[in-house]
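ok so for the tutorial part 2 we go from a plain amino acid sequence to predicted structure tokens. step 1 is just haveing the sequence, like this:
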Amino acid sequence: MTRYEYPELDETLYRQKLPNGLTVCVVPRKGFTRSLVYFVTDYGSVHTDYRFAGKDYRSPAGVAHYLEHKMFDLPDRDVSAEFARLGASTNAFTSYDMTAYYFSCTKNFDACLRLLLEFVSTPYFTAESVEKERGIIDQEIGMNEDAPDSVIFENLVKAMYREHPIRVPILGTGETIREITPEILHDCHRAFYAPGNMLLCVIGDVDPEAVARAAEEILGTEPAPVGEKKPLPKEDMTCPQKETTGRMEVAMPMFNLAFKCEPLGRGDGAIREEMVADLAAEALFGESSELYLRLYEEGIIDTSFGGGFETIDGCAMLLCAGDSYEPRKIRKAILTQAAKITREGVPEKDFLRMKRSALGRRIRSLDSFDATCFRICAYHFSDFDYFRFPEIYRQIEEREIGDFLRRVVTEERCCLSVIEPTTQGEKDHESC
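step 2 — the prediction. this is what the tokens look like for a chain of 432 residues:
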């Protein structure tokens, strides 16, 4: 394995691409008893259209998440119980653009690693088990539809985007999951769970070479074909709707406010744009910003307010959210403050402070195995070595903040999603 040193961070990374196409990354942490392993595929909920083995496929919304649930099934075996007997905790998640399976352990590392590799690479879908899981996922969808945080964001992206599949929840809908069959799950697994589409990331006091050997023994050495994801719909930067409002049982109004951004590409340039956007968010509405302090003093926002830059395959947005009785005042204030920053710039001392603060947060996050593993995986699929983030931050200039805000924070790109409290009259009607 190739060893990479990052003296500024006091980090070491071992990386190897195996003959079967799998990339293995190991971050050694000598003296730690805990180990964390992520086994990740570059496949998420937005990747419903693809080509594989000369054939075009369109899968129902929610397949990636459904597949994540079903991968824990093996013939006559309980994967979760096996991890528990080994003293490990295991779980998985599906995002818009990737699916991850992971475990954490303090003993029996090799056995846990082999079990993870085995169950993720072994599709086992029966008509009975797929049907049983449908009920479980349908319940999860129902819970999601009752969660204000989920509803307000889903309302937001439906108003912001015309065609991009971010419009559809990661879980799918009650209608789309009824279309999912064992055959569809097999097709998606063949296309996207090939080693060449995956990353194995390990953090702990482990032998990097032994990790690579285990991966080859379980997954084999021969490469397998990988599905070709169809290009995602290109959107213009205007929002079809400027505002959307719903009602739920919340204590006070909640809002999501977003500005539509161009999707990021790959490599150094894309990561630099992401970090510029993060700094722009901090300058505009971060906790130490002029706008935040003023709105807080006026009682328009409270400690629930926060935001940042969100990027998903094929789309991106500058987003803030919180509880407030006056979300439209917040929208107006953000537009006004962005115009001020583009005119006057960010004072040099404030800009340097923001860069130091952002860099410091990233460095401190390296103490978290979970945050580090997640970011290594996410940035890997964007063709970027995550441990190089300090050099990117140092390159960013103050003018880039104003350039970003001038381009992005406009009326045309703005969308507001609000959840208002259900009135007493509506509650009484619903109870009848």
